[in-house]
């Protein structure tokens, strides 16, 4: 489960940046095509935060949809599947959204 290491990296980045400040909450953006399972991150978050300034912090996760543009027909469309395929049948697509994984905000005391 790579979500444990992803969550550890998020917590490490926050503690490094926030120092000794008590963190009350964290908002993450995890795109639907990122390959990261938000429920697994939620599960790992409490475990990884134990003993840090994030212990007891709330976690909010925004899950933006995948979006793509077909290079053959120029259609822009929603992409729910990690296998990019345009409704026209072409696999020549550019993924334009949904792969992101970022810390959007941190609330401190």
Description of the molecule:
The protein has 109 residues and is of the alpha+beta class. The chain is 26% helix and 32% strand. The protein has two helices and six strands; from the N terminus they run αβαβββββ. The strands form two sheets. It has a three-stranded mixed β-sheet, covered by helices on one side. Strands 4-3-5 form a three-stranded antiparallel β-sheet, with no helix packed on it. A hairpin with a 5-residue loop joins strand 3 and strand 4. Helix 1 crosses helix 2. The mean pLDDT is 95.
Give a short synopsis of this structure:
The chain has helices at residues 3-18, 38-49, and strands at 23-30, 58-62, 66-70, 76-79, 93-97, 101-108. It has 109 residues and is α+β, with helices and mostly antiparallel strands.
> Would you tell me which CATH topology of the domain at 3-65 and 97-108 applies?
hypothetical protein PF0899 fold
Uncertain spans: none
Helix percentage range: 25-40%
* CATH architecture label name of the domain at 3-65 and 97-108: 2-Layer Sandwich
- On the 0 to 100 scale, the average pLDDT is 95
Total strand count, please? 6
Largest sheet report: 3 strands, mixed
Order of helices and strands: HEHEEEEE
CATH class of the domain at 3-65 and 97-108: Alpha Beta
Please tally the helical runs, counting DSSP H or I stretches of 4 or more residues: 2
Strand content: 25-35%
Overall spatial form: elongated
Strand order of the largest sheet: 2-1-6
Please compute the radius of gyration using only Cα atoms. 17 Å
Structural class call reads alpha+beta
User: Quaternary status of these chains?
Assistant: single chain
Distance between the termini: 32 Å
């Amino acid at each position: 489960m790579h979500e444990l290491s992803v969550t550890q990296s998020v917590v490490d980045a926050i503690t490094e940046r926030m120092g000794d400040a008590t963190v009350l909450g964290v908002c993450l953006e995890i795109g639907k095509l990122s390959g990261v399972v938000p429920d697994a991150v939620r599960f790992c978050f409490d475990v990884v935060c134990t003993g840090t300034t994030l212990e007891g912090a709330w976690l909010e996760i925004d899950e933006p949809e995948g979006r793509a543009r077909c290079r053959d027909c120029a259609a822009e469309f929603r992409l729910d599947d990690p296998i990019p395929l345009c409704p026209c049948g072409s696999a020549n697509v550019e993924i334009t959204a949904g792969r992101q994984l970022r810390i959007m905000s941190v609330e401190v005391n």
